[in-house]
Amino acid sequence: MMGERRVDACVIGPGLPGHFRVRLGQRERDVPVERLPPSLRVPNSEFVAIVQGTDLVGIEPAGREWLSVQERVRSVLNAVWDPIGVGGDVDDEYDSYIAAIYHLLKRDASLGELAAHLLEIETESMGLSDQSAEHRAETARQLKNLDLPAL
What domains are defined for the chain? Predict the structure, then answer.
């Protein structure tokens, strides 16, 4: 099952009956009216959407601050960790792991806990064989050194 990620979103206007046409990141989708709070049910309303696959599943209460967190964590995951080697080509490949990593960082998890979490993603979620422990440790160090806003 694909994890959640956050994207910029904007209400474009009416869609199918009972739906609004919404831009979710780079894609346009028809979203059931009940998934949008009344304050966003007008054209040009901008917000940060929580999406799973291509479906809107919620609204990010932290808004643009979350996008800042996401970009900083994403840069480390893509440039340093990148266990499947696509970080330079597929910008959002690891976005579904960012929320859990952020929560570990906010509760001041140890380097070992962060590295263990990365190992679990690699082996359980991705089905990879054990990658370099030093590589995970370096990723954990760089994640711990990020200056992230409190949400």
Answer: 4-59 (2.40.50), 64-144 (no CATH)
